[in-house]
Design goal:
Helix content is 5%, strand content 60%. It has one helix and 18 strands. A hairpin with a 2-residue loop joins strand 11 and strand 12. It is globular and about 60 Å long. It starts with a helix and ends in a 22-residue tail after the last strand.
Length: 438
Amino acid sequence: MVETASIKRRALFSLWVSMVLTLSSGTGWAQLRVIGNVHSSVGFSDNVLGSVDGTVGDVADGFVSVSPRVTLGYEGATTLHYLEYTFNYFLYMQHPDVSTYGNRLGYSVSVQPSAHTRLSFSAGGTQGKRQVFNLLEGADRSDPNVLADDRISETFVSFDAVQGLTWEITPVWELLQSIAFEAVIPLESDRSESKNYTVGGRFGVGRTFSFDALGLVVGVDFFTFGEVEIEGSDPQPEQHGLASQTYLQWLHDLTPAWSTELRGGVTAAVNPDDPDVHIVHPLAFGAIRYRRERWRLGLEAEHSAEPDLLTSRMTLDNAVRLNASYPLDREGKWVTQATAGYRYSIFYAPGDWTPLADGYHGILCDAALSWGATRFLFLDVRYQFMRVSSSGGIGQFADGGAVTQHTAMLGLTLTYPPEGIPLRVPSLRRTRADRGLR
């Protein structure tokens, strides 16, 4: 009896193993992937407090950062689910009070109910502490941060959600639709009521030709700014606004590698509580891009006006960005990446939306060299230069001046398994006419 029971147990175990292997090699667990990623760096910065040049606060310090990320992806026949948690910690050795941290949990799903229709949805939340001059977000970011306001050093929570629809009506016509929500809530006791949020939608129609794509996009956003305090004036009460964008878009493929993009239209904002308070500005964007295998090169210029949830103000931005990335060897183990950007921003005062001060000029240059030591281990060395200036503004720029920061660092990235997730939620940002409109 004992031997018979043992045989039965071995038979059941063999059957269970066979079922697991069958599922893992078919449509079951093979579709489920867990990916681990850790990035860590050590470095040095000569102006950790973001102080105006020449002041007492212009001090240097070393730092250590760590950012683990866990990703859970599930690929179905017509769906892709994507759940991700990221924690980041940025510690200054001698000035821990300006260190930052963040927790981010996000979920995305993409569904393709038919061969010509794609639905997507994403939602996420972030909690942490930010500091205005911690700009180390990656060498692919070239927008200088000109949030020259002491209030930006704070703990906060934020939430966001986006729904999107792409429908290819015919092989050459497509419709785009999206709805987005975002909220930023400071957690300091003196600003706990300053809840900023925006909700809006976009609708677009486009036609694709052999080497061109034309489209029309219309969007409307409703936004709310909580109580805002401006140095030297009384606090501004909660305010509301409506912002709209209407523009034409043209994508043109010069060659299989070179492409261009132009957008032109108008952006307007109005205070529904006081219709006489409004802003109307032209909207313009131009870009030329080069993409070939691992080579990337792009030059962009943009003029826009939009609400900024971080500063509780309408902003008028003029920006120029240049980015490049290319491998140094055939295997692609050595890769260089560099960006440079200039941005001029004007803040509008809450309430009457009059321009504040003389605007802010920002320059950000970033260069990195990475080496793929193995399939799952990457090492990089990186340098960043940042300068923000104003002839007279708010916060540390009340008397004019400039903030300059030089930063250098060494980093490593571990990813396992190295192949990662085979598919990602498709991006709506297209850069070639033969791939449709944005």
